[in-house]
Request: fold
Amino acid sequence: MEHHTPRWREQSPHWVSGLADTIQVVSQGVTRGGKIVAKPRVFISFDFDNDKVLKDFIIEQAKRPDSPFEVLDVSLKEAAPEKDWEAKARKAIAGADKFIIMLGSKTAKASGVLKEVAMATDLGKPKFQVIGYKNGSKDWAVPGGGTVYLWNWENLKKLLG
Reply:
């Protein structure tokens, strides 16, 4: 497995080391214009075989005191039967407000990620991509996955807040 340094790791003293898989960012409420509104539900797609560490990092980043989002890990712990996995992924994507792809060097070829992007497109979900590693590139983008952003705290707060 190729190792890269995650972009946000340099910005936070706390981090977790460590078929595509998924997590959801779940709402707890944020203040906008003096009113408390629910945080958006976000489905996160990543290449489980090569980039599981990205999931661990975003979970840890969500624990920051100023985080506008909270992460509920609904990742598969082991391979699920194909039809079962697709049904669970579609249901989770349908319940999300936003769809994010965490990009590693092999994400664009990860079959599970490609299936999830197709589901999100079919369901009309807004999508964007985040380069997960310091030495990452927009060349890693998944076709049809939306705009590509660098992974930094300000971008995450803006996109998820």
About this structure: The CA atoms of residues 36 and 143 lie 36 Å apart. Residues 8-28 have pLDDT under 50 and may be disordered. Residues 7-160 form one domain.
